[in-house]
Amino acid sequence: MTLCCFRCPEVALEVLDFLLEICFVMETMLKSHRDEQHPHQAEDFHRKLEQNSKLSGIKKDIEKLYEAVPQLVNVFKIKEKIGEGTFSSVYLATAQLQTGLEEKMALKHLIPTSHPLRIAAELQCLTVAGGQDNVMGVKYCFRKNDHVVIVMPYLEHESFLDILNSLSFEEVREYMFNLFKALRRIHHFGIVHRDVKPSNFLYNRQLKKYALVDFGLAQGTPDTKIELLKTAHSEDQQEDSVHHSVQRSVFGERNFNVYSSTYQENSSTKVKLIKQARVIDVSSRKLVTKKKIIFTKTVSNGAARKAAGPLNLPCDCYATDRVCSVCLSRPQQVAPRAGTPGFRAPEVLTKCPTQTTAIDMWSAGIIFLSLLSGRYPFFKASDDLTALAQIMTVRGSRETIQAARTFGKSVVCTQVVPTQNLRTLCEKLRGTNSGCRRSQGEVPKGSENDSALPFAADKPCAPEALGKQIQQQKSFQEDDGALEIKATDMKGWDQVPDEAYDLLDKLLDLNPATRVTAKEALLHPFFKDIRL
């Protein structure tokens, strides 16, 4: 390249900029060529770059935690961040004991915006109910200004998804037994966990140790023995309205209930939730079916309410696809709805104001359903009414409508959906049905983000196609079975007793008043030879 001298500095600068731009383009082209020639090396490079960036961010977070709570410096050596949720971050740390040994601890740093009463209530749950029967306890608590760190024993655990399809039937039985022990413990103290899910029930497969964690959303029953939960109840409802769309992740377990925005367009059933008090003759009204599947009369605010008519006017939108001004003018119903999508009970989805420990038992039933079927997450939906429609595909529309009436709700469904046989459903999904086999070694279809419900994601759910989809739900396409495994490799899945599905049926009882309790579940014949 020839170097020139320019008398005019402006011209020299322009030429220099031009040369630099050419060099940048050439460098980009060479890098692109290298990436094409060595794609694996390029992927490794980018992966290492992301890891280094992540590690750098975690290192900064640890430094900030030490600055925020300086008491930790002389007691703990924080190793890494192992979890991050909406309201807290969890770190793995080691503590130097007087014996000279090191002990692993989990440090839960609550975000400064957490309400002090909620923090105190969580601590009281851990100190009163924790430390036994598979409920996580607390060792220490540190506070500096508005920063609070709860120190708990660290339980090394496996990811639920990683071990789901390798668990033997006996391991599943032990898992559920220990989960019910933990729920019996907290329910005895009048604690409703409200966020029971696999990532909040830690499981060490090798040591056969279990721990129910994260009482950040816990609520008290009317007779709760946790005094602070009585006071925190009103705060819960305010937090629910603020954080209702945020998903929580605890102890590093990634949240698998992440949905695409288009999923709500493809639910199998059109559902509408209405107030039970409005009983109007709908025989003359026409049900309008559109591509938009879910409709709800609940609105968050706004201008529409101000322009709405008097409250004593009759509703004019019952069982239609619109919301009238009368319904818009009604005050929004406030009810706890915390929890993770896919695990919420029907009474939570329908905003029933009275919620009991039965909501935890429903969530335990969903976990059991995933374990028996080998599918996780089993349900996934972008909103509560879509979630209710998915529950209908398993438990039946008539049964859901009838159960809703028991807690003062009315559900309108455009299609009659029959109840599924739970054994048939789980066996076909897991592939242990004799008429539903594959060649040995073939992996079942579906990834961690696949729902167990085989709805077409690229087609609208028109009424004429709905019947076919429901039929597919019943058959689950027999060519989409599971592994053909020798009897010696079945790990007990070819001999699942009827008691397992009887217990599952009782856990997934749509009526919370008759749903099985944790104490009753432990006495169920399914656990007849396991000692309490």
Automatic annotation (TrEMBL):
<dbReference type="GO" id="GO:0004674">
    <property type="term" value="F:protein serine/threonine kinase activity"/>
</dbReference>
<dbReference type="InterPro" id="IPR008271">
    <property type="entry name" value="Ser/Thr_kinase_AS"/>
</dbReference>
<dbReference type="GO" id="GO:0005634">
    <property type="term" value="C:nucleus"/>
</dbReference>
<keyword id="KW-0808">Transferase</keyword>
<dbReference type="GO" id="GO:0005524">
    <property type="term" value="F:ATP binding"/>
</dbReference>
<dbReference type="GO" id="GO:0044773">
    <property type="term" value="P:mitotic DNA damage checkpoint signaling"/>
</dbReference>
<keyword id="KW-0547">Nucleotide-binding</keyword>
<dbReference type="Pfam" id="PF00069">
    <property type="entry name" value="Pkinase"/>
</dbReference>
<keyword id="KW-0418">Kinase</keyword>
<protein>
    <recommendedName>
        <fullName>non-specific serine/threonine protein kinase</fullName>
        <ecNumber>2.7.11.1</ecNumber>
    </recommendedName>
</protein>
<dbReference type="InterPro" id="IPR011009">
    <property type="entry name" value="Kinase-like_dom_sf"/>
</dbReference>
<dbReference type="InterPro" id="IPR017441">
    <property type="entry name" value="Protein_kinase_ATP_BS"/>
</dbReference>
<keyword id="KW-0131">Cell cycle</keyword>
<dbReference type="InterPro" id="IPR000719">
    <property type="entry name" value="Prot_kinase_dom"/>
</dbReference>
<feature type="domain" description="Protein kinase">
    <location>
        <begin position="76"/>
        <end position="527"/>
    </location>
</feature>
<keyword id="KW-0132">Cell division</keyword>
<dbReference type="GO" id="GO:0051301">
    <property type="term" value="P:cell division"/>
</dbReference>
<keyword id="KW-0723">Serine/threonine-protein kinase</keyword>
<feature type="binding site">
    <location>
        <position position="108"/>
    </location>
    <ligand>
        <name>ATP</name>
    </ligand>
</feature>
<keyword id="KW-0067">ATP-binding</keyword>
